[in-house]
Design goal:
It is built from ten helices and 15 strands. The protein has a nine-stranded parallel sheet. Strands 1-15-14-13 form a four-stranded mixed sheet, with no helix packed on it. The chain has a two-stranded antiparallel sheet with strand order 2-3. It is globular. The N terminus is likely disordered.
Length: 340
């Protein structure tokens, strides 16, 4: 099945210097927020909510129909990226030291658009700021632990974003920095970084939960080292890419959750489509999440590449750079667990 994207313009509210509208009447109360109580994330009515949805992980690939399709399938959340200070193909890096918030105006407009689309469809948004350099990926010598001036810039990025979106409806959580792996920095050092960043965010917004994860590329085996007491509105996360032993990390997650009475949500779960028994493994993991009340975001909805055997519910049509090809079996599989 091939679908061609709809080309659309940015609304006037997304122009440089404007922010996503918070509500029709600025004099009304601030929009409702998620909260944390023990091991549960609560919706604004105080009822437990298990956040489930997709990643819009590949920059600039979201189509106008996507958020509505997620809602129809049963999703209640979406994870949205901003890539900042790193090496990515196709000009994905949004860093611009001369711009407000050190964010390229063109990238900010795209981010505004994604957040507006998700918010309008009542999907709880997890906004994450990725930084290949900052997190120390590949042992990069310049990162947020070795370059204080870059950590300060990153703080200013988050200050800008929190001010911009703190009154946006359905802003679910701020995920500070995914997949840290700075060379020579132990779990305590990574946790100290998150604690400091939580303080930066709480200086502007005390309501919206924050998401933190463990050292070693968000390894579930390092969850214990991520535990913090600096803030009660913390949602913990780790990666769950699916390999030969698909259920080998479920106990790590549930044990950590029980030991500290805190919520754990999986920011990325996925498997390459060409892997042996990929669909069977994916079903077993998503069923285990459902059985244990673990929320998740599938990696990823649209893949900015032409290989059908990697991640993605949609991938690029190699014969048409503006076209998309759907993997219908994978859409049915993941959507089936969204509705559960």
């Amino acid at each position: 099945m091939k679908l061609r994207p709809v080309i659309f313009g940015l609304a006037a509210a997304m122009l440089l210097g404007s922010s996503v509208p918070a509500s029709a009447d600025p004099a009304t109360a601030l929009p409702a927020r998620l909260s944390v109580s023990g091991a549960h994330v609560l919706d604004p009515s105080g009822q437990p909510i298990v956040l489930k949805g997709y990643n819009w992980g590949h920059w600039g690939t979201v189509q106008p129909q996507d958020p509505g399709d997620h809602v129809v399938a049963g999703a209640n959340s979406v994870r949205i990226p901003l890539r900042w200070w790193g090496v990515w193909k196709d000009g994905v890096d949004s860093r611009d030291t001369t711009a407000p918030g050190h964010i390229s105006p063109s990238h900010l407009a795209v981010l505004d658009q994604m957040i507006s689309q998700a918010s309008a469809n009542r999907l709880w948004i997890t906004l994450f700021v990725d930084s290949d350099y900052g997190q120390g990926a590949g042992g990069h010598p310049d990162n947020f632990w070795t370059k204080p001036e870059m950590k300060q810039e990153f703080k200013e990025v988050w200050q800008f974003l929190v001010r911009r979106y703190k009154s946006t409806p359905y802003m679910g959580a701020f995920e500070i920095l995914p997949e840290p792996k700075p060379a020579g920095v132990n779990d305590d050092g990574v946790r100290a970084f998150y604690d400091e960043m939580i303080g930066v965010i709480r200086g502007i917004d005390r309501r919206t939960p924050v998401v933190v994860g463990p050292n070693d590329n968000y390894s579930c085996s390092h969850l214990e080292g991520a535990y913090t007491t600096v803030d009660p509105k913390v949602i913990y996360t780790c990666n769950y890419f699916i390999f030969d032993k698909p259920l080998n990390r479920i106990g790590l997650i549930t044990d950590f959750r029980s030991a500290h009475d805190v919520p754990v949500w999986i920011n990325q779960v996925g498997v390459e489509s060409g892997d042996v028994d990929a669909k069977s493994k994916a079903r077993s993991v998503l069923q285990a999440f459902d059985d244990n009340g673990i929320g998740w975001a599938w990696w990823t909805y649209r893949l900015n590449g032409t290989n059908p055997d990697t991640h993605g519910i949609y991938y690029r049509d190699p014969a048409d750079p503006n076209g998309w090809i759907l993997k219908p079996g994978w859409l049915a599989l993941v959507n089936g667990f969204l509705a559960a």
